[in-house]
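Sample log: tRNA pseudouridine synthase B.
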Amino acid sequence: MPYKKRGEPFHGWLVLDKPTHITSAKAVYAVREIFNGVKAGHAGTLDPLATGILPIALGEATKTVSYAMNSSKDYTLTVRWGEATTTDDADGEIVETNELRPDVTAILKIMNRFIGVIEQVPPKFSAIKINGERAYKLARSGKEFNLKCRSINIIDLVLLDIPTRDEASFQVTSGNGAYMRSLARNLAQALGTVGHMRNLRRLRVGPFCMNHAITLDQIKNSINKIHPSNYLLPIETALKNMPSLALQAAEAIRLSNGQGIPIHTLTDYSKLYQLQENDLIYVISNTIPIAIARIKDGTVRPVRVLKL
């Protein structure tokens, strides 16, 4: 049920612990319904099978989504050896089997190949566009197509457990754009077998982690007891890795109106001496974020103005 006070603005980040078997888009829709239909968007799609951290931006926080999406991410995933599927996860149909089951020695031996910048082919059932069409739509219609390799960054890969001879669990830290389904498939191939991702849980997206997370049921069950804004993190949470600049009231008004401000005229000029041309900063006034700006030609120029 929605919060009853209609028209009340909400601005900030909700860190949702997404349940399984729901798309990221449906999760965002459910949150919008609770928060009176406020504008919302998520920072990084989770497949329906996956659970865990889905940061959802509300109101003016949607202007910071792209900066959150570029952050590193932590996952735990389980690979099922010996079965390849159409979707590279447990929701797909089995298309190939193999009797080989790798042991711990074999797994540890090949893991270093997958740490660092590597080439990866995304799953055919993905949202990547091919000539304007989503790959998953082409795959569902039975059309033949190939996806190009792309460079992704696996920052860390740790073997957690081998609960059965058919499965192994890993913890992964990755950069933006890495597909865990592809990683599961490629690990199996490197071990001389086939495989798919049996389950996936995302533990962190940049500054958003499980310590901040809440489920849809927890929100719905407490909606009449706890004000929804209590669940939100500040807009600037997504900008933790971006340097900040404090402006005086008159400077803030100019920037909010779309005007650039020469750096040498700023009261807080000393904080900018380490920045370079085209660097991004987030700008605050009286502790309130007012814009994301760029250093250009000796001027602080607004990129996204926040209307708070």
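Observation: The CA atoms of residues 73 and 205 lie 5 Å apart.
Observation: The helical segments are 24-34, 65-69, 104-110, 135-140, 180-190, 216-221, 249-256.
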